[in-house]
């Protein structure tokens, strides 16, 4: 079997699911975390850990034998950097070029499309970010594409999965259904992210951009109401958006409204989503406890 080795920068919620799958298939997996505790957690999974804070380079041996690279590190982090550039590219541009990886992936966001007032977008829709963090992601996408033809861009919708989902929000109490007319959100189960990335690795198309979302964008209150019904609890109260006391970060998520098509991952990569809507995803999470 051909040796396959992944180096994942920022191995967090999504990366760990992918790592577990690849390790089971005989891959060597390296991953970075900003903390010693995070590195210990990666080691417990069977991942070779490297501590990376976005400013201090990894040792050269971290790139030895690497055939595939994935980054989920957001641009502009850590906060100590003076600019909004991608820290992985800033620190390791030459190493990434020298390692000759056959496939490189970058996890971005559907936020780069900006506000379409509830309209549909796909990979052919011009990007028009209107939030600063989305604009940084747009710049990072272009920087990764300029680095190498091997780059693949994955624009992720809102991620949910074990420990991060509407069931947990309702169980904790204090959840609210923020009602804003013509507001649409997209989402994707963390397992389906791994499925899409694996499919791209199996069928690489240099320069590809993929929307990674499920089949059913919805107003944000729908999954909360469904989660409450699954739990046999009263639905969270409705609160009009203009009356909701939200942090600036939480409020910013309501600045854009769009519905994102995922046809390309099905047509080109042959992906069949395990959780095509939030209903299947939440039911599975409830069954898994």
UniProtKB/TrEMBL annotation:
Q: Which residues form a coiled coil?
A: none
Instruction: Tell me the Pfam families matching this sequence.
Output: Epimerase
Superkingdom to which the source organism belongs: Bacteria
InterPro entries cross-referenced by the UniProt entry:
Epimerase_deHydtase (IPR001509), NAD(P)-bd_dom_sf (IPR036291)
Key words, A-Z:
NAD
Residue ranges of every copy of the NAD-dependent epimerase/dehydratase domain listed in the record: 11-213
What this protein is called in its record is Nucleoside-diphosphate-sugar epimerase
